[in-house]
Automatic annotation (TrEMBL):
The keyword Transmembrane applies. The chain crosses the membrane at residues 15-36, 71-98, 118-139, 151-169, 216-242, 251-269. The lineage of its organism: Bacteria, Pseudomonadati, Pseudomonadota, Alphaproteobacteria, Hyphomicrobiales. It comes from Bradyrhizobium stylosanthis. Pfam families: PpoB2. This is Putative metal-binding membrane protein. Signal peptide: none annotated. InterPro entries: PpoB2-like (IPR018688). Keywords: Membrane, Transmembrane, Transmembrane helix.
Amino acid sequence: MTDSPLETVLRRDRWIVGGAIGLLVALAWSYVLWLANDMDMGGMDMTDFRMIPAGIGIMLPANEPWRTIEFAYVFLMWAVMMVGMMAPSAAPMILMYARVGRQGKAQGKPFAATGWFAAGYLLAWCGFSLAATFVQWAIERAALLDSRMAIASDLLGAIVLIAAGVYQWTPLKDVCLAQCQSPFLFLMRHGGFRGDLRGCLLLGFRHGGYCVGCCWVLMALLFVGGAMNVLWIALLALLVLLEKLTPIGRWIARAAGIASVAAGVWLLSSLPR
């Protein structure tokens, strides 16, 4: 018996969904690289100015209050950066949802549920991005943010490093990481596959919430190394991947915690007395 076109497509859902995730990640990283290149002033003294991450060379006096458009650009920067950093580690969960959701073919919408689930996941990270935007605003208003969008105070940087390292050892980190490491168990613990729009969004948002709980301190470290430091962004994204997708992810998280605390203590010890 010859398969229908829909059945043929469903058999290739892994490639289609994986390709869509790959394209989304590639676009996100392209945007981040574009912003980083635009904000690279090549050693120019930016003491009295700040760059807006718009990709078109917008510069404002450092003491001028933020405008609505600046909040929008900074939020967009964080949101797109979170897509580029977090979508790869969420791919197994999204692919699992697509596979379980093959039952959706009866409604003629085999990929709709997966799309809404992914949207819910990314919505959780948009919430984090909004919070990060206001944190960046507060740090910048306190004159503690440099042109790389990194904390200019060694004391504050050390505190963030130590706090992030300690969090890596907490039970909350372990609980959230466990939810991220096993897609099938996550589905079973939270009611299984949902086919309706609201159910897909909420389940994706819940998974994204666990992911935020697992990784928010790692994202906070972007303020230490620089939110527009591409190498630092890539290293943190790799750490997230290793934590979530390897059998020793829990121990990698704890090792990273030790390293973060050690770096913070070293930074504290180097402060002038």
